[in-house]
Give the backbone structure.
Amino acid sequence: MFDEINTRIEKTMLLDRWKLRSRLRNLQKHPSHPNKISQLQADIERSVKIVESRLQATPDISYPQALPIVAFRTAILENLNKHQVLVIAGETGSGKTTQIPKMCLEAGRGIFGKIGCTQPRRVAATSISAQVARELGGNTGDVVGYKIRFADQISGNTLIQFMTDGILLAETQGDRFLNAYDTLIIDEAHERSLNIDFLLGYLKQLLPKRPDLKLIITSASIDTQRFSDFFDQAPVLEVSGRMYPVQIEYLPFDAAQENEGEISMEDAMIRTIRELLNTTWQGDILAFLPGEREIREVLSGLSSHKQNVVFLPLFGRLSNKDQQAIFNPSSSRKSWWRPISPKPPSPFPESGMSSTADWPESADSTRKTRPSDCRWNSFPGAVRSSVADVPDVWNPVCASDFILKKPCKTVRFTPNLKFCVPISLGWC
């Protein structure tokens, strides 16, 4: 009888198995409690029904054939079945963030435990979960959900859960073996934030104790060999992205004025934005500044344009509601403002604009989903004809690497050698 019960436990949720087995061991030592055996069997069947419900909730899976990572689907599925750890270096625009969780689902993962996918920022976790839910024909919170600080949309049938890396790290306090998950995807691992480094070290020690747990490490730019060595020569897959030519121009800047304190970085930003807003061009604007204080100062200087433009600051201290405002439709032009960071979030709405900061990267590695007319303005210095002429130490394009889903113009300028301040402009 106990052997049959133990076999049945193998069909329960991972989160329940340890407790069920512990109860079974106690009953084997003290078998004179038939009521407890009946209760254990009832709890096992309750967990088995949850597994069956999750299996029935698994949606039909399809992939956008235009995404480069779809061509690697077979190789990813084979390596996922053969190895416990897989390192995927997918270039920007390859579709790795949205498609790899679906491939895990196709491989039979996510039934006995969730497929967890970490993102560095809240806005990325929420927006990507909505995108994947749409691709699977459902709503956020059903098969695909998210969990962030102070908010979550998940249910008992959630198979794929997007979350910030801080959330997963916090869950280790109450679930040391992370039994809630049968697959973990650490996305944007190249950022090497404190949370990511802690998670990688924790998972390194956990994997031998959880042979059923699969780990996938992904990033747009990553030292694959270092990650492979760290996880005992884990296999590496490299996925190409999509690249198109970018026209680059560098406009001069009066360095003497800056040295005399007559013009600051914020002044230069305001002047350039005003010139762009006063032209006949009607595109949206994505601007980068060093931090929250600089963003607020520049927005204050552009207050006279608020009747024509919706200004949307975006930084970590904003509430989730304020961050989600960037996705609200609007008939007016939009201007997104965010600090320079290693990895800005998922695609912005309407203009189809997003950015990924693989610092440092050259302008000729800028990715797009179609050819674009881009304009790069750099200060200080004389006009330069190509990015190769600009030293990396103050190369304005080291700040960010843009994905633009529609034709765009891009402007970047650096008022001094301390900062790299890009502005990206895209047609709606």
Observations:
- The chain has a mean pLDDT of 75.
